[in-house]
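QA checklist item 7 of 12: single-chain prediction sanity check.
[x] sequence parsed
[x] length recorded as 367
[x] structure emitted
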Amino acid sequence: MDVHFRWNKKNTYSLAVLAPLISQSDFVREPMGGIMMYSFSTSQRDEIYSEVDSSETDSIYIAGGPHPSGAVEDALKHFDYVVIGEGEETLPELVSTIQSGGDVSAVRGIAYVENGEVVRTPARPHANLDKFPCFNPDGLRGPIEISRGCPWRCKYCQTPRLFGSKVRHRSIDAIVKFAKQYDDLRFTSSNAFAYGGNGIKPEFDKVEKLLSTLAALGDKKIYFGTFPSEVRPEFITDKSLELINQYCTNKTLSLGAQSGSERILKTIMRGHTTSDVIDSVERCFSHGIVPAVDFIIGFPEESEEDQMLTVDMIKWISQKGGKVRAHYLTPLPSTPYENTHPSPVSKEVNRVLGRLAQKGKVTGSWE
């Protein structure tokens, strides 16, 4: 039975990780006969469901990724199987079991429908990152994932719900193996400055060990704490910024602030304060680094006053020369906001952000 990954540019990172684990698989841009595997987020849901529902191929459909993992019953209205959470061990076992005609109920970490009822098999332990590749050097590539999981329980975020609250790190030796494949090094992590630690308190000696080892590889450009990764504001210290200037190419840092309202930061369980954001931005500029700061608009508990506090902080950052990305809240499955409605963006907030966008001070989509 042929095995296909449904490719699109939005799921490149996950497919780069999974494809090397499924022998003789390929990438396709439309449904094909055999086993069809999809990985997708909530924003892709409707388009993918429509494609699967209208397909006339003789296929077994497997869904994985953030949306199916968080909305299992929803995905099973359209797919035969859902891989819940991490797929490195589960997906190859499921594919092999299907191909051999084995008992799928013995595969941990999946869901399917049997006799009209959703069946969830026992959860699978989280993966040891060192046992699995970041990508196939001869195939589809992605950034190097250095850490997975997050100890913070931000109400809008799927990461700790899917990958656990204990942060796991890829070893330096394993990271170096994949770093040798690139001239420009980019990484994924929920908080790059948390490398080697528990995600609550930094262990900058371990961060420095990683960066110094990568720098010793030779003529490599190291982009750390910037897209597609980010850092938390309370992890931005004189020490962490000195490490960026000493070892890295980037002169920007991607910083998750999320709100300029102290009340909202507490409500969403963000775990830092507005003062942490202000201090981190000031420190960045003092070290010659430009902060690129993310904000979310539309939390359900958010008032116009809260939104204006966020706008005030956005204006302050942009006036100092920082970069800002603003996004409208998407209630994601498996999070506390799953069944809530985002608050509307006030006309004044929209007007101010629109004016800043015209001046190139803000990017993103906040409506």
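[x] summary fact logged: The longest helix spans residues 304-320.
[ ] second reviewer sign-off
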